[in-house]
Amino acid sequence: MNIAPILAGISQGFIYALTCIFFIWLVKQVDDWRTKDFDDDRHIDDGNLAVGLRRAGLYLGIAIALSGALSGSSGGFFLDLIHLMVDGLIITGLLFSSRFINDFIMMGHLNNDLECIKEFSLDDGRKITGNTAVGVVEAGMYIATGFILNGSLSGGGGTFFQSLVSALLFFILGQMALLAFGFIYELITPFNVREEIKKNNLAAGIALGGILVALGIILMGSISGPFTGWGNDLAGFGIYTVYGIVMLLALRSVIDRIILPTTNLATEIQEDRNIAALIVVEGAIVAVAVIISYSM
Question: Over the stretch 234-252, which tens digit does the pLDDT of each residue have?
Fold first, then answer.
């Protein structure tokens, strides 16, 4: 066994891991600056689950996207590292753009920052700080965007410039697909999703955040692969996006009946606020999305 290539691979992997840590630090600094009116670290130290959830989603999103930048053919370690740094800066900007989209379009009448430090009174009289439903939806949006960027940055067959243009284009198309799906989801849901999230209904937040992650995984599968031309790639994205949305909605209904045979999701979300049931259901939906993505 030749040990030298193994040691070289381990060393390069360590440097890539350090690069990921650098970008996690960078997005933390940017987010701290963006929310300079309140101290995120203090809120996390105080147990604010909403702030913790969206920060965790941000860190996962950037790692998922960076892993796409690391895939594909190699041009040599140092060139790959330069590309990774450039991709990381682009990913950082696009992830914060997705947060803006989530704040002002997906959630509409809510201000995510204010909701995540807002005080709520529980039924037993206790008070908690932070709308965890908003926090989990924002985390889901970050993670879904990370999967979309993973797909657009992975593969090969094009130039480095084409990969950057592709990342931007498919980021825009992916965000449009997420938003369209969010509105479709609200239309077919028998209660007002945004109102339930505004009331800090964590079950409603898990339902929306989980299904956004599932769609992000499917979109990753529709985007990833070698560059074959803008026409083919855009057509493939459109076909697989429609297919993925239809499959998710159909299979969600099937999973609802299998996992919750004596009740239904609407009751568990709106009336019972059953967090455990929603974690199980959304876990199953994400699992199905993984299979759909890798079957494309």
Answer: 888 888 888 888 888 888 7
d(Cα 276, Cα 104) in Å, to the nearest integer?
A: 29
Q: Can you name the residues that pair with 128 across neighbouring β-strands?
A: 120
Rounded distance, CA 252 to CA 240, Å?
Answer: 18
Strands (DSSP E) contained in 119-276 are: 119-121, 127-129
| Of the candidates 226, 99, 218, the residue with the CA atom closest to the CA atom of residue 153 | 226
**Residue in 13, 33, 96 with CA at minimum distance from that of residue 62:** 96
The answer to whether 289 touches 248, Cβ cutoff 8 Å, is yes
Token couple for 165:
């243009």
Burial of 86 (0-12, 13-18, 19+ CB in 10 A): middle
Q: Evaluate whether 155 touches 225 at the Cβ level (below 8 Å).
A: yes
Q: Which residue, chain included where needed, has tokens 């440097």? A: 15
Q: Structure pTM?
A: 0.90
Torsion of CA 218, 224, 227, 233, to 10 degrees: 0
Strand partners, 120: 128
Instruction: Give dist(CA 94, CA 77) in Å, integer.
Output: 25
Q: For 175, phi and psi rounded to 5 degrees?
A: -65, -40
Span 110-157, pLDDT tens digits:
777 777 888 877 666 677 788 899 999 999 999 999 999 888 887 555
